[in-house]
Amino acid sequence: MYNFTLFLHVAACLFLILVVLLQSGKGGGLAIFGGGGGEQLFSAPSGSSFIRKLTLGLAATFAITSLFLTLMSLRSGMRSVTTQYPPQQQAPAQAPAQPAPAPPGQ
Question: Is the model's pLDDT at 16 over the cut of 60?
Answer without folding.
Answer: yes
